[in-house]
């Protein structure tokens, strides 16, 4: 395969990866706390002595959109939403994870857990406990109170290295080492929606599809040209 074919195939591979990311964004339009992702394209140029340089695109980087999404009022006692910076810290079998999805319920032991059963961690990294049957109130700073007495504080966290944030599944992220977040505040009885804009994502999907189709036509034309050359030289 000549240089043009390698360049086209590299571009097609990147477009396919971007299509998968866009499709995942659209599939999570209604996922609480979901953060849209994008693909970062990079250009690698190889300079060959005495020949034309070769430029090959790569789409190996992914960027997470951390912009604030809308809040929907639920009235749930243990539905928490974050305004501003920060994530909830969740304990999972794979290690601690970050999320903006704040739908929690008390377990049989009185610990607040996600729908998957993962425990919510407080500002000190310990499970958040609420007395069974208690009508807890959440302050803007994360303080949980029962009958006017504080029983815990929901922590807000950020990755120590912002570049370490990696999407795992659904609304969960691996942030590596974390540190307390400043500036964020909590709201009780609300959930944060997905920050995916359906119009923008569908428009981007159409653009990527058209670009992929153009690349495929180019590859088909290159294949026909190579076959024609081989047939001509083989006579």
Helix content class: 25-40%
Q: Please state the CA-atom Rg, rounded to the nearest Å.
A: 25 Å
**Element string (H = helix, E = strand):** HEEEEEEEEEEEEEEEEEEH
Number of helices: 2
What structural class do helix, strand and pairing data support? alpha+beta
Poorly predicted segments: none
Could you characterize the architecture of this molecule?
The protein is of the alpha+beta class. The protein folds into 2 domains: 3-66 and 201-233, no CATH class; 73-192, no CATH class. 26% of the residues lie in helices and 32% in strands. The protein has 2 helices and 18 strands. It has helices spanning 3-27, 198-233; strands at residues 37-46, 54-64, 71-73, 80-83, 88-92, 95-99, 105-106, 112-113, 119-120, 137-138, 143-146, 149-153, 157-159, 166-169, 172-174, 178-180, 185-188, 190-192. It has a 5-stranded antiparallel β-sheet, with no helix packed on it. A 3-stranded antiparallel β-sheet has the order 10-11-12, with no helix packed on it. Strands 1-2 form a two-stranded antiparallel ribbon. A hairpin with a 7-residue loop joins strand 1 and strand 2 (54-64). It is elongated, with a radius of gyration of 25 Å. The model has no long low-confidence stretch (mean pLDDT 85).
Label this structure with key terms.
five-stranded antiparallel sheet; 235 residues; 18 strands; 2 helices; elongated; alpha+beta; three-stranded antiparallel sheet; 32% strand; 2 domains
């Amino acid at each position: 395969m000549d240089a043009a074919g390698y360049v086209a195939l590299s571009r097609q591979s990147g477009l396919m990866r971007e299509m998968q990311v866009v499709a995942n964004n659209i599939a999570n339009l209604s996922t609480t706390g979901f953060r849209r992702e994008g693909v970062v394209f990079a250009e690698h140029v190889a300079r060959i002595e005495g020949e034309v340089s070769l430029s090959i695109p790569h789409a190996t980087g992914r960027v997470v959109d951390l912009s604030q999404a809308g809040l929907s009022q639920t009235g749930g006692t243990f539905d928490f939403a974050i305004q501003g910076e920060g994530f909830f810290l969740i304990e999972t079998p794979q290690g601690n994870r970050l999320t903006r999805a704040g739908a929690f319920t008390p377990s049989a032991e009185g610990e607040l857990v996600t729908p998957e059963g993962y425990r919510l961690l407080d500002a000190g990294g310990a499970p958040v406990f609420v007395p069974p049957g208690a009508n807890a109130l959440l302050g803007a700073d994360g303080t949980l109170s029962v009958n006017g007495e504080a029983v815990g504080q929901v922590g807000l966290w950020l990755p120590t290295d912002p570049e370490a944030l990696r999407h795992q599944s659904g609304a969960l992220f691996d942030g590596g080492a974390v540190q307390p977040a400043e500036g964020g505040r909590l709201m009780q009885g609300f959930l944060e929606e997905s920050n995916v804009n359906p119009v923008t994502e569908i428009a981007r999907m159409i653009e990527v599809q058209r670009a992929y189709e153009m690349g495929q036509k180019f590859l088909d034309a290159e294949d026909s040209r190579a076959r024609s050359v081989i047939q001509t030289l083989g006579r």
